[in-house]
Amino acid sequence: MAWRPNRYLLEGELDNTTPGKVTGWMRFSGLDRKVGFELEGNFHRDIRGAKIRFRGDGNADDPEAPSYMEGFAPKQAGKVGDMTAGLPPRDYSSTPYLEWYSEENGRVVLEMEPEQVEVIGKPIPACESDPISRNEQAENMAGFLTGLACAMNVPAVAVDGGEPLVSDPKFSHWVVEQGRIVGEAHSMKPADHGMSFAFVRLFRTPEAAEHGYIATSQLRAKQNGAHV
């Protein structure tokens, strides 16, 4: 649920030498000029207070780039997500990971290999700054998902008191456990012994969505007005 233009990244530079700000630029195949950055927030502690330069694997002549990158704003303003080079102290990822929440394009993520990123300058000593707040990052994600849910005209579902997840309109039923919505399902087929065969997506593990058997009593049609 993010814009991931890794294939089209050519090069870029991001600067966090001003506390609370990340500025810089990137070049992508399919775009005829650099993309500028004005973001609120900080890098993770491994590169906080420094600049990074990086190169991508993009091909400037990629014929698919113009259609994929169409609509990508020439100025990316918004909030920093998780940005790290994957260096010690590793507060998030062991490999370079650049995430931001764009006012124009929503959540954007770039992932690279360590050899593609160069740190310029000396980061603030890790002992002099705190790790990025996971609560703050959860709020960033929640704000993004809530906006997406409004745009799609589908409900955002809060799971276990955490960040909301967007309900996919292709799923016709909620999955309910102990009176609480924990996922959604579609393509139900009645089976024996009070079970149904369905495609099930649990919100706590959305990447593990798959077909399988589930108790029919756990399925509730969405139009029945289920509430979180």
Descriptive keywords:
228 residues, mainly beta, 2 domains, eight-stranded mixed beta sheet, five-stranded antiparallel beta sheet, 2 helices, elongated
Question: How does this model look, in words?
Answer:
With 228 residues, the chain is mainly beta. The protein folds into two domains: 127 residues, no CATH class; 57 residues, no CATH class. The chain contains two helices and 15 strands. An eight-stranded mixed β-sheet has the order 7-6-5-3-2-1-4-8, covered by helices on one side. The protein has a five-stranded antiparallel β-sheet with strand order 14-13-12-11-15, with no helix packed on it. A hairpin with a 7-residue loop joins strand 13 and strand 14. The C terminus is likely disordered.
Report Rg. 21 Å
Low-confidence stretches: 224-228
Tell me, what's the shape?
A: elongated
Physical arrangement of strands within the biggest beta sheet: 7-6-5-3-2-1-4-8
- Count the helices. How many? 2
Into how many domains do the coordinates divide? 2
Task: Give the helices and strands as they follow along the chain.
Answer: EEEEHEEEEHEEEEEEE
What does the average pLDDT come to? 86
Strand content: 35-45%
Helix content: 10-25%
- List how many beta strands DSSP finds: 15
Distance between the termini: 22 Å
Q: What is the structural class?
A: mainly beta
Main sheet properties = 8 strands, mixed
